[in-house]
Design goal:
- By secondary structure, the chain is mostly beta strands.
- It contains no helices and 27 strands.
- It has a 6-stranded parallel β-sheet with strand order 1-4-7-10-13-16, with no helix packed on it. Strands 2-5-8-11-14-17 form a 6-stranded parallel β-sheet, with no helix packed on it.
- Strand 25 and strand 26 form a beta hairpin.
- It is elongated and about 115 Å long.
- The chain starts with a strand and ends in an 18-residue tail after the last strand.
- The relative contact order is 0.09.
Length: about 290
């Protein structure tokens, strides 16, 4: 009944399983489990591990093998791809909870399915199950069906063995942010939820989210400089596409002292900058003969 934490490892080249959970429920997070002799991860004899943010690839048999009636693994936000057998095998009445995963390209050496149900009651939803056994849809599920919000389409990885998502990936913003034990960061340690909805798979697509500035001044038509760069516009104006963080705004106008201030730009928000420029004035020295004239 041990519950160790297995985190940030490369587990590769073992003769049998990469990780064998036997009557234990470890937290298995942020690992690469690859090229092992049988299964990537085996869950047996009442094991209920938390399998989160892992890459399971190139294992000779199945990526994850669930084999006990009291085994209830939580399988969230993993990328399970390129294993010789099935992506996930469920048998002996096991009941895994399978959410936000990309399960693709398995069955490289055997007739493998994305999710193979021999027996049990898995909970399956918000996964991309596609292209297993070399066919787009035929070998995705066996003896079970797609979850309501599962998809079956090319996840568009950056490369053959680089499982980061391209900007056009259909897995972006297609998970559920209420998945069990959803992590706060992805496999790389980057923020897990970008754009309010979690992605499928181990890596969150890190799109650049920007903010805006709404700049007004008295008087108007002051030239706007941002971080020392002339923005080519005058007040009032809205500047968009600004990287979140602290910036310097400078306003210039003939006949007025320059105005400068620092402002914090927030992601997906517009921050107001309201400035009042001071008129440049001078003095007149008056003398007379005789003195004392009004």
């Amino acid at each position: 009944n041990a519950g160790p934490t297995i985190i940030n490892n490369i587990i590769s080249g073992n003769n049998h399983d990469g990780i064998d959970c036997n009557s234990s429920s470890p937290s298995i997070t942020n690992n690469i489990v690859a090229m092992n002799g049988v299964y990537g991860i085996q869950c047996s004899d009442s094991s209920s591990p938390f399998i989160i943010n892992n890459i399971l690839t190139g294992n000779i048999e199945d990526g994850i093998y669930c084999s006990s009636s009291f085994s209830i693994p939580t399988i969230t936000n993993n990328t399970i791809s390129g294993n010789g057998g099935h992506g996930i095998w469920c048998g002996f009445s096991s009941s895994p909870i399978i959410t936000n995963n990309i399960i693709t390209g398995n069955g490289t050496t055997n007739a493998g399915y994305g999710i193979y149900l021999a027996s049990g009651t898995p909970t399956i939803n918000y996964n991309d199950v596609w292209g297993n056994n070399g066919l787009p849809t035929t070998y995705n599920y066996h003896n079970c069906g797609a979850g309501t919000y599962d998809i079956s389409t090319n996840p568009q990885f950056i490369g053959e063995v680089d499982y980061h998502l391209q900007s056009t990936s259909p897995c972006i913003n297609k998970g559920t942010s209420t998945a069990p034990n959803i992590p706060i960061t992805d496999k790389d340690g980057n923020p897990r939820i970008i754009g309010n909805i979690v992605d499928m798979g181990a890596y969150e697509y890190q799109s650049l989210i920007t903010g805006s500035l709404s700049i007004t001044s008295t008087p108007t038509t002051a030239i706007i400089w941002l971080d020392g760069v002339d923005k080519g516009t005058v007040t009032p104006a809205i500047l968009s596409g600004i990287i979140p963080g602290t910036h310097t705004v400078t306003l210039t106008k003939d006949g007025y002292y320059d105005w400068a201030g620092t402002v914090t730009v927030l992601a997906e928000a517009t921050t107001d900058v309201v400035a009042s420029l001071t008129l440049i004035t001078g003095s007149i020295s008056v003398t007379s003969t005789p003195t004392g004239a009004n």
